[in-house]
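Ligand-bound model needed. zinc ion.
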Amino acid sequence: MTLAICSRAAFARPQLEGTTMGFGLKTEAHFNAAHFLTDFQGKCENIHGHRWRVVVYLYADTLDTSGENRDMLIDFGVFKKAVREEVAKFDHQFIVERGSLANDTIACLERETFSLLMVDFRTTAENFARYFYTRLTSRGFGVSRVDVYETPNNCAIYYGPCGGPHDGSDASVVHMA
Ligand SMILES: [Zn+2]
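Prediction:
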């Protein structure tokens, strides 16, 4: 299997016309979880839940030329499995930004056997999009874009260097505990 890793230099911005046309794949998964936003003046400062929908796009300029994946960007099954694995970590968790709850609060929640997942980022849809981009890229996937929907109408997008509206800057790494 050849994972399609984009050439940043040549494909910083896929074009609809011209010489930099290529191929894309898209798959999605979702997770249900609770969170709250620290330092936010509004409803989202309180604990609430979402059905986060995560849509991942791959991009490649060429397809595999031999073997069982000939004329494919990548085996869909491999792609779908990886996305589901990354997303599943968050399902039915209370996602908490590290440092945003007092230690005794955490101890109480854990005593009640609630399942907390501590992360090192503010739990915005933008940061989740960047997180999934970083995770899947580190696994060798040529991710061009990740969409994270908090609601059916509200979506944050992270563009990688090989798929974004910008040329240049590398994706920042978001670490999860
Ligand atoms: Zn929210």
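Residues 1-19, 164-177 have pLDDT under 50 and may be disordered.
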